[in-house]
Each structure stands twice: as structure tokens, then as C-alpha cells.
């Protein structure tokens, strides 16, 4: 068996995320949450024919994701002022 080790010590270093990285994650959290909601809706209808309620859930999830992405893009465009 061949042992795999990190070439660079920084890769294995136990370091905490920086404040900037945490802020970036926090800013993207609405998009991440909306993506998870859409994925949940898609998984729910994988093995069955979607009902009207399922279709509404999908539309709402897509709309929330689009709104979250738009909001993040506008915030980035305006330099975080929004």
C-alpha cells in the first residue's frame, strides 16, 4: 500500500477560516440554502409523476434561487452596499 502525504505543510495545517472567508460564506448562505431547497424538491419527484403541488414547490424553489442569486450579484456589483 502506498502512503499519500501532503507535499505542502500548509495543506495539512489546522487553521481556522479567516474573517473574510466567513463573511463570504455568510453572504452566499441564502444562495446555498435556496439550492438545497431546489435539490430537495427535485429529489422528491425523482421516482413519481409530479403533482400540481410538486410543480408549485419546484417553481417556488427556482424563484427563490433566482432571487437569491440576483440579490448576491447586485450586492457584489454595488460593492456590498445593498
TrEMBL record:
This is Uncharacterized protein. It comes from Streptomyces fungicidicus.
